[in-house]
Automatic annotation (TrEMBL):
Name this protein carries in UniProt: ABC transporter
Record has Oxidoreductase as a keyword: no
A Pfam family it matches: ABC_tran
Organism: Rhodobacter xanthinilyticus
Keywords: ATP-binding, Nucleotide-binding, Translocase, Transport
Membrane-spanning ranges: none
InterPro entries noted in UniProt: AAA+_ATPase, ABC_transporter-like_ATP-bd, ABC_transporter-like_CS, P-loop_NTPase
Residue span(s) of domain ABC transporter: 4-227
Source species, domain of life: Bacteria
Function per UniProt: Part of the ABC transporter complex HmuTUV involved in hemin import. Responsible for energy coupling to the transport system.
Amino acid sequence: MSLMSLENLSVRRAGEVVLAPLSLRLEPGECVGLIGPNGAGKTTLMRAALGLIGASGTSALAALSPAARAARAAWLPQAREIVWPVSVAHLVGLGAAARGRPETHPSVAAALARLDLAPLAARQANALSGGEQARVLLARALAQDTPLILADEPLAGLDPAQAIRTMGLLAALAAEGRGVLASLHDLSLAARFCTRLIVLHRGRLVADGAPAAVLTDALLAEVFGIRCTRVATPEGLMLLPEGVIAR
Ligand SMILES: Nc1ncnc2c1ncn2[C@@H]1O[C@H](COP(=O)(O)OP(=O)(O)OP(=O)(O)O)[C@@H](O)[C@H]1O
């Protein structure tokens, strides 16, 4: 059974099409990177898929009751600032509470452990650094213990080591049989860790497939307006943006 199923989903904002009709499915085991330049429609696609904003067409997730949707999909929004003066453990526990489970549910301790947050569990969440807060919010999403995770720029604000760890975690969750959809701007990490890339450009889906097949020089030039050097490393392909193509 598909974890996400969109049929002709589209969004208009202020009279403009910001997401042209698209159809796609996401299956268990897939770690899907959603890539595209700023303003391409990545956040819009994920929010519409979850039913958080009005859209035309259908999304199976958006059609679920709030309780059923909370059991199916966890959402990591782009905004990362934590303003509540509560402990990290309590905040991560809210992920379990979203499913009507107690904060003592094993999913909470598991999420804290997977993000190396046990040493910070008693700290006040709003007093953590930006990158630490980002990890706490991802842990809250994991504590929801859902088959599908949608994450809007999960690497934003993370140092290089944490970014690699986070992508490794998302890939591991997919390998365990969950589905992951994450918007990403780091094309090298997307190529290295994702099983599939979906590319949006000006609100349209322009490519969908295996990273090596999607990240062609022509696509990088046309969609991102960049020239890249490709470096083959033992860990996989690295794309080093060299310059901007005048358009
Ligand atoms: N409430 C709104 N009213 C009008 N236009 C909007 C609204 N929200 C988003 N848009 C427009 O929709 C387009 C897609 O925005 P979206 O946030 O989905 O892009 P994105 O790909 O997630 O970008 P980024 O990488 O910068 O986060 C943008 O052009 C944006 O200006």
